[in-house]
Amino acid sequence: MNLRCRVIVSCVLGLCLTGLPGCDAQNEPTVLDAPAKETPDPVQAEASIKEAQAARIAALNQRDVDGAVSVYAPNATLVVPNATPLTDPASIRANYASLLGDDNLTMTVTPTKTWVSAGADFAVTTAKIAVRSKADGDPVAIDSTSQSVWQRQPDETWKIVSEYNVALPAGNPSDDADPADTDTADTAKGEIAKTVPAD
């Protein structure tokens, strides 16, 4: 092959190669960076948790068992006074079904304080709970304080992973709590947190 033929073949091959992917810088695909995740905001997290608390109180008002337990994560633990810790969804649901199924019982829940972690992935809330019975001959008056640990879920919802309720000593009812110990916004929600309207 003479020199002239070799030059022509080289040019043809060069033109063919420039049409192949990766041979031409202008044809290289543009790689986009993944969108930056928004940094969790503790203030927004607290607002979301208070919405979940309000929804739970509304469910208690309506004696809606499913709504009341919807705030618990599947792996949640619930500790109630004088009972074995409840560590599975079925036992937690049974506890609420028994409580809300008794028309003689009323329950008042007053959220008090909320703390959110700096990373807005965990939070702790406290509440005061008063349970009363209107049944003749079987009075019930249980006052307790509750501490709940919430965890932000992959879908950005907040669920309770641990809740611990401790009975208060007799003569220290939760409805006599010092108003200075309660968040103002939470108090408004607590005032309507009865499962049965007051007579």
Task: Summarize the entry for a quick read.
With 199 residues, the chain is of the alpha+beta class. Helix content is 30%, strand content 27%. A 5-stranded mixed sheet has the order 1-5-4-3-2.
Structural overview:
- The chain is of the alpha+beta class.
- The protein has a single domain (42-190), classed as Nuclear Transport Factor 2, Chain: A (Roll).
- The protein is built from five helices and five strands, in the order αααβαββββα.
- The radius of gyration is 30 Å and the shape is elongated.
- What is the straight-line distance between the termini? 109 Å
What sequence of helices (H) and strands (E) makes up the elements? HHHEHEEEEH
**Based on the structure given, which CATH architecture is correct?**
Roll
CATH fold title? Nuclear Transport Factor 2, Chain: A
Question: What's the level 1 CATH class?
Answer: Alpha Beta
**Radius of gyration of CA atoms, rounded to a whole number:** 30 Å
Beta-strand residue fraction: 25-35%
